[in-house]
Every structure is written in C-alpha cells, then in structure tokens.
Design goal:
The protein is α+β, with helices and mostly antiparallel strands and about 140 residues long. The longest helix is centred in the middle third of the chain and has 22 residues. It is built from three helices and five strands. It is about 30% helix and about 20% strand. It has one domain: 2-Layer Sandwich (HIT family, subunit A), CATH 3.30.428.10. The protein is globular and about 50 Å long. The chain starts with 5 loop residues before the first helix and ends with a helix. GO terms for molecular function: catalytic activity. InterPro entries: Histidine_triad_HIT, HIT-like, HIT-like_sf. It comes from Halorubrum xinjiangense. This is Histidine triad (HIT) family protein.
C-alpha cells in the first residue's frame, strides 16, 4: 500500500467508498465522479501504478473481475452497452496513480463516443510505417 494513494486509503477503509464487489485481491466501487449511472472502478487492492507493474496473478484477478462485473453492472442499470478502459500513465489521463479499470455503462442516445474518441485524430500511416511499428512493438515484446 502507498500512504499517499487515495485508492490505497479506500482499500484500508480510511476513506469511504460505495463498494459493489470485493475479493482478497480486487475491490470494485462506484466512481465518485461518474461519467454515467453505474460507472464503476475496479482496482487491485495492492498498490501498482501502471498495468505493467502487475504480476501475472494480480493482472488475471483484476481482468477476471472486470470481465465478470461488466455484464452484471450493465444489467443492474439497464445499460445498452459499456465502455471498459484503463488510463495507464499521466499522458493517458490517469488521475490516480493506482491501476484501475473503468466500467462505464452506456445508453442508447447518451451522446457518448466509442473508445476510439479518446485518442484524438488518427495518424496517417503508410503500410511501410505500420510494418515498422509492428516490428518495433514485436521486438519490445521479445526483449
């Protein structure tokens, strides 16, 4: 746990939250500033700032919870769909430096946009550039 992390303080019980799900490894609670009715945050109980900081078991616990909770959240608020996302790092909009997945229920005509909208304008990349990026990513994964 991190002493200066609001999510760690929620896990410790020092800050109240509207908890909807809890296991030994994962906690899910309603977002205090929701984007939609039922907007839920799913976090690992142990502190990790970035997705890459999670070990395999904790990543599995976290994303298993997200997969299990998403349709149940949708059903609870009678949503037509959901956006599921993780802001990983300050440049990606991560406001709390503790890994968390957002489950944002979506409703027909709610005025929201698909997850693609978060990235702004799409870059124009040639096939050669796409091939080069694929090679760079593959090399980084193999490293």
């Amino acid at each position: 746990m991190s002493d200066d992390c609001i999510f760690c303080s929620i896990v410790a019980g020092d800050i109240p939250a509207r908890t909807v799900y809890e296991t030994d490894a994962v906690l899910a609670f309603l977002d205090a500033n929701p984007l939609a009715r039922g907007h839920t945050l799913v976090i690992p109980k142990s502190h990790a700032q970035h997705v890459g900081d999670l070990d395999a078991a904790l990543a599995s616990d976290l994303f298993d919870a997200v997969a299990s909770l998403t349709p149940r959240i949708q059903e609870a608020v009678d949503a037509d769909g959901a956006n599921v996302g993780v802001n990983d790092g300050e440049a990606a909009g991560q406001e709390i430096p503790h890994v968390h997945a957002h489950v944002v229920p979506r409703f027909e005509g709610d005025g929201g946009a698909p997850i693609h909208a978060v990235a702004g304008e799409r870059p124009e990349l040639s096939d050669d550039e796409l091939d080069a990026v694929a090679d760079e990513v593959a090399a980084a994964i193999d490293a």
